[in-house]
From TrEMBL:
EC number: 2.7.3.3
One annotated Gene Ontology cellular component of this protein: extracellular space
InterPro entries: ATP-guanido_PTrfase, ATP-guanido_PTrfase_AS, ATP-guanido_PTrfase_cat, ATP-guanido_PTrfase_N, ATP-guanido_PTrfase_N_sf, Gln_synth/guanido_kin_cat_dom
Protein name per its UniProtKB record: arginine kinase
The entry's keywords: ATP-binding, Kinase, Nucleotide-binding, Transferase
The family this protein is said to belong to: Belongs to the ATP:guanido phosphotransferase family.
Domain Phosphagen kinase N-terminal: 25-109
Domain of life, source organism: Eukaryota
Span of domain Phosphagen kinase C-terminal: 137-374
Gene3D superfamilies, alphabetized: ATP:guanido phosphotransferase, N-terminal domain, Glutamine synthetase/guanido kinase, catalytic domain
Record GO biological process: phosphocreatine biosynthetic process
Length: 374
């Protein structure tokens, strides 16, 4: 697989030679591009990767050695991707801007080349309450965000040593948390079958990446450097080195979004005091997948709306009006089990953290109102 050689420190003349994208990578790019162009893929990659853009980018490299192949490999291999691109390192967003910019603009519902993501703002954390006090509709509520550690590339470019070093930093940081966040870090390496089963039963444990991540080279050296932390109440989790360096998650049964959000905000602020995060003036917090840029916030509920769900098109239509995304019970690319949908905010870029959660809050309140009226 292409890309992500360690930084090159050779002298000028050699460097030019090394900066060339090698022939095998170019061949793979050309044949992959031809197949994608001929396919009926609905991905954003296919929509925006014109021959002109492709020719412009195919010989470029980041200082980590990432090529266009590293960026688009997942979408070339999986024509059923919705998006189809990842950033192998933070620089890729600028080096391959001609393909990232239009995809980001499209996915996030308007974020042009000159737009800037607003500064972090969690807003008034007390303004959210319980969306479903009677417990009729909402099974559970979850708010998560992604963070990358400053000074490290993303998954495809990480060395085994860097994975270990990051896990060490993360676990020692998390073990310093107190109050309701206090908990235990479980490394995936050497995890006993019992602990593993327990975490799987709790729906906490992430499995090795799906084929979209595999194709993007995000699962190297598995399970080295991967781990999971949860508090004693199992309402606060951190995933280390799954898709992003960190996934910080607050969740609980029922519809009390206020409680879930406040816990997340406290946790993020506590962790940030100890670990510097990778941030960019234009895109906000940087993540491996461009759909998560900006606030990186995904606020979601598992919700039972059987009447609305009987007409999936209607459900999708109402959801779209509030910038909500409807997924199956177990997340992306899954079916709804027992009529339970996972519904979340779709936009994460160009608005504040508070606004992203508010879109979910208002949209879900509206869906519940509608369901009750049917």
């Amino acid at each position: 697989m292409g890309g992500c050689t360690s930084k090159d420190t050779t002298s000028g003349d050699d460097k030019k030679g090394n900066n060339m994208v090698d022939a095998a990578v170019l061949d793979k790019l050309e044949s992959g591009f031809a197949k994608l162009a001929a396919s009926d893929s609905k991905s954003l990659l296919k929509k925006y990767l014109t021959k002109e853009v492709f020719d412009q980018l195919k010989t470029r490299k980041t200082s980590f050695g990432s090529t266009l192949l590293d960026v688009i490999q997942s979408g070339l291999e999986n024509h059923d991707s919705g998006v189809g691109i990842y950033a192998p390192d933070a620089e890729a967003y600028t080096v391959f801007a001609e393909i990232f910019d239009p995809i980001i603009d499209d996915y996030h519902g308007g974020f042009t080349k000159t737009d800037k993501h607003p500064p972090k703002d969690f807003g008034d954390v007390d303004s959210f309450g319980n969306l479903d006090p009677t417990g009729e509709y909402i099974v559970s509520t979850r708010v998560r965000c992604g963070r990358s550690l400053e000074g490290y590339p993303f998954n495809p470019c990480l060395t085994e040593a860097q994975y270990k070093e990051m896990e060490e930093k993360v676990s020692s940081t998390l073990s310093g948390l107190g109050g309701e966040l206090k908990g235990t870090f479980y490394p995936l390496t050497g995890m006993s079958k019992e602990v593993q089963q327990k975490l799987i039963d709790d729906h906490f444990l992430f499995k090795e990446g799906d084929r979209f991540l595999q194709a993007a080279n995000a699962c190297r050296f598995w399970p080295t450097g991967r781990g999971i932390f949860h508090n004693d109440d199992k309402t606060f989790l951190v995933w280390c080195n799954e898709e992003d360096h960190l996934r910080i998650i607050s969740m609980q049964m029922g519809g009390d979004l206020g409680q879930v959000y406040r816990r997340l905000v406290t946790a993020v602020n506590e962790i940030e005091k100890r670990l510097p995060f990778s941030h960019n003036d234009r895109f906000g917090f940087l993540t491996f997948c461009p759909t998560n840029l900006g606030t990186t916030v995904r606020a979601s509920v598992h919700i039972k709306v059987p009447k609305l769900a009987a007409n999936k098109a209607k459900l999708e239509e109402v959801a779209a009006k509030y910038n909500l995304q409807v997924r199956g019970t177990r997340g992306e690319h899954t079916e709804a089990e027992g009529g339970i949908y996972d519904i979340s905010n779709k936009r994460r870029l160009g608005l504040t953290e508070y606004q992203a959660v508010k879109e979910m809050n208002d949209g879900i309140a509206e869906l519940i109102k509608l369901e009750a009226s049917l």
